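JOB MANIFEST
job_type = single_chain_structure
chain_count = 1
residues = 538
[input]
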Amino acid sequence: MTDTQTRVTQSPAAEPAQRPELPALGLGGALRFLWTQLTSMRTALVLLFALALAAIPGSLVPQRKVSPVAVSDFIREHPRIGPIYDAIGMFNVYSSPWFSAIYLLLFLSLAGCIVPRVAVYGKALRARPPATPRNLGRLPAYAKADVVTTDGVLEQAATTLRRQRYRVDIRDGSVAAERGYLREAGNLLFHVSLIFLLLGVAIGSLFGFRGTSLVVVGQGFANNITQYDDFSAGASFRDSDLRPFSLTVKDFRVRFETGSVQRGAARLFAADVEVVDRPGAAPRPTTLEVNKPIQVGGTKVHLIGHGYAPKVTVKDGNGDIAYSGPVVFLPQDGNFSSAGAIKAPDGRPERLAFQGFFLPTAVVDDQGPRSVFPDALNPAVFLNAWYGPPKVETGVPENVYSLDTTGLTQFKDETGDPLRFALQTGDLIRLPDGKGSIQMDGWVRWVKLQVGETPGLPISLGAIGAAVLGLCLSLFVRPRRVWIKISGRENGSSLVEVGGLDRADARAGLTDDVAELAHQLSSREPGLAAGSKRSGGT
């Protein structure tokens, strides 16, 4: 047997390498791993992007809190996809479980990112500037110069750097200085502000509310849930949280441009109101204007719209008054051509209803009846008339600004065409077949009030201001390190070396600053210590 065969025979058989057994991760290890992943900056950015994507359906799909009627119409018009949207919360995006989950995870991720960084930053503030490198010539900015004497050089350098807001440390025959700590403080302030911004938005979403109400001039509004035309509130809001105040609209002053330039443009909208801050309090007069809300406690009342309400008296076939008072008509264009419906459901033996337009400055031309100016210079109401049997009360709400003609018959004129007529103040029209009459008594204005409370708004505004401040600090503060040391030459002279390093991106002026500092130290007069004064000579 040869040596080769012997070696082959004696070599052990090749066996696959066995992997070392790793310890089980365990529940605690798994939780620590998940927390580490959640609090990484990459996860925070992903969650922020996901939150932006999740908010998109809220602007594309009607939301139940904002417009419940539009949601009902959407479900009726889309019988297949509508119920699916409703099941997954597409009509309540901002209060849905999936949106809330992204929101809370982002909140936790930001908090987990920032808290450790605050601790690290606190240690950095207490730490000494880093020691002077052995070879300053390798730094991006470097300058050297001969000095006549080394007495007081380091002290003068320290004094100069302190004046430039450096934190200075003298040790081992050198000066180490550092500044720009506010840059990291600004970065932390920005991220902390994001947390408070999310907190403010969350508080406003949970406890805030907003609603609108149309109030006819001369009438009042009480801050009660039944007084609102539409109302939306946070998940933790209760009706008892509404502040018990009331107000009365005494007058509404409006003025439009009458000149040839910008004719019809608004020049003044002001409502004179009396506010009762709480039950039993004396009314206080004030003026409500656009972008100048009145405030009662934490509740703000804004003026967001206005229009016209013709005053009519409707008598039924028995000669009794079936309806009397103002009827709100809604503007349809810039000249306040307004559409509306007048309903007299209590008319007997038949109920009456009217539908049409109120025109503040009415003209009739080739385009038909229309308003040519937004102010009430020639007000008139143009109506169609309907009648029908008394309607059984079902309790189902209906739109007061439009007319459902189901079960109604339209009045006809002598030619068989639909009856149409126009009324101005004082005019009276008797309906065919003795079914009643309608008279226009005049008109009044109405205002649209928006009442709301956002308890988290001060927190959000403060957070936005702090975030802007933090961003400015991060962008404009220049973190920089400077080192100075003195070394001897072979010929017995001394050399001062100055090195500088920008810790952020490259900044213009570092090389010049280092060279200037070296020049100042080398041009000292012998025996002149830092901070000393030269005595006068003869």
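[summary]
The chain has ten helices and 24 strands.
The first helix runs from residue 3 to 10.
exit_status = 0
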